[in-house]
Amino acid sequence: MLERSLKLPLDGQQSIFLFGPRGVGKSYWLSKQIPDALYLDLLDSELRFDLEANPSKLKQYLGQDPKQWIVIDEIQKLPSLLDEVHKLIEQDSRRFILTGSSARKLKRDGVNLLAGRALTFKLYPLTAMELACQFDLAHSLEFGHMPSIYDKQDLDKAHYLISYIKTYLKEEVMQEGLARNLDAFSRFLEAASFSQGSTLNMSAIARDASVKANAVAGYFDLIEDMLIAYRLPVFTKRAKRRLVAHPKFYFFDAGIYYHLRPKSILDSVSELHGAGLETLVLQDLLAVNEYHRLGYQIFYWRTVHGTEVDFVLLGEKKLLAIEVKHASKIDKSDLKGLKSFAKDYPEAELICLYLGDRQQLIEGIRVIPAAEFLLSLIDFI
Questions:
Q1: Does residue 196 register a pLDDT over 90?
Q2: Whole-model pTM above 0.85?
C-alpha cells in the first residue's frame, strides 16, 4: 500500500470526520491504520434500513471496549444517526471516525455536527509525493491519481474512470434525488468539463447544456458538495486594478476531467493537457496544504483585461504566485501574468511550472519543471 501523508490523531480522545470524494481510499486506508476498529458501512442497505428505523440501535452494534474506534462509513447516507453518535460520545466516551463523500445532507439545517466535538480532516487523490517513483507526469495527465489506478495491476484504467463517472457522478446523484433530470445533469457535466481551469460563465454553460441558468447554479453547488469539484475564488487582497468577479472551476482529479471531457479531432493536446496539468498542480496543492497544515488560502488572479496567474497561495508568512505552462520552453511572454502580479505585490515569490527538465531563473522568476515541483512540493511552498 502506498503510504498516505495524512496523519490522524488516533491516540487522542476526540472523534473525527474524514471527508473525501468516493474512491479516494478512505475506508481502505482506515482499515490499514486501525485494523482493530469496528466498521459499520452505511452503503450496506440492511444496516442502513435498520438504523434508519431506530437510530438508538446503534449501541447494539458496538463492542464492549469503550476505547475501541468505531468507523461509520458514508455518514451522509443517514445524517439522523449523528444525534445518537453525539449521545454515545457524551455518555459513554466512545470514539468515532465518520467518513463522508458528500457534505450536502450534512449542511442542511438541523443536522447535528457533534457541536465541535469532532475534528475534521480531508483525504484527496494520491499526490505525486505519495506516488514517488510511481509518478509519471504523462500517465497522470491521462489517468489522474485515484488510488485504484495504482492498486490494481490488471485494471482497465480508462474503463474504471468512465465507470466512475457513470455510476457515481450520474447514477448516485439520481438515486439520492439530488438532481431530478439525469439527462440534463449529464449534459451539464460535459459542458462543465470545457470550463476546466477557466473562469466560470454560467450563461454559456447553461446554453451549451440546454439547461436553465438557475439549474446550472444548483448543479455547481451539488458537485462541490459532493467533493468532486472546486471553485477557486479570485485573489482581491489590496487590489490595485479591476479584477474579474467569477471563480475558476476544476474537477477534483485530472483523470476524471480527461475522461469526462468529450474529445474530437479538433482538440489539441495542449488544450486538453494544459487544463489537466493545472488540475494536477491544484489537487496536490490542496492535499499537501491540508495534510501538512500549512494554512494557505488558495486563489487565482485575473484582471478584466485577461492578465492572469493560475494560483495564488496566501499564508501568514508567505505569498506565492504560480503560473502553469504546458510547454517545454518558456520565454518572457509566458511570464507576463507573474510580472504584472509582482508589480502589485512585490513581496510575492514567483514560480512558473513547465514541461522542461531544468530549473531556471528568468528576471527573478523561478522556472521549475512541473514533475520536479510536484514530487518535492513541500520543499517549494
A1: yes
A2: yes
